[in-house]
Write a structure and sequence with these properties.
Layout: H1 2-8, E1 14-19, E2 22-28, E3 33-38, H2 40-43, H3 46-61, E4 65-70, H4 71-76, H5 78-90
Length: 91
Amino acid sequence: MRDLCDTARIPRPQVNSIVDGDEVDLFWREARLIVETDGHQTHGTRTAFERDRARDARLTMLGYRVVRFTHGQLTYECGHVAATLSALLAH
């Protein structure tokens, strides 16, 4: 993610930050943007799926924007990820 941010000239996020009691993968505080990077090994169970969606809804209600990218997207669709982040950070 650091290389992606540097290449796309996206400000680097805070990593593994605590946001309202939850640890999040990537956080752009000023933009209130949270990005979760989901690997199937960690997030592939029904319990994890349900927990992740409940947490996303709670953080959204608190005014954060939560976006999820899969390992495959980060590996094979870097341009799409960078364009998405750039657009979200521009708002």
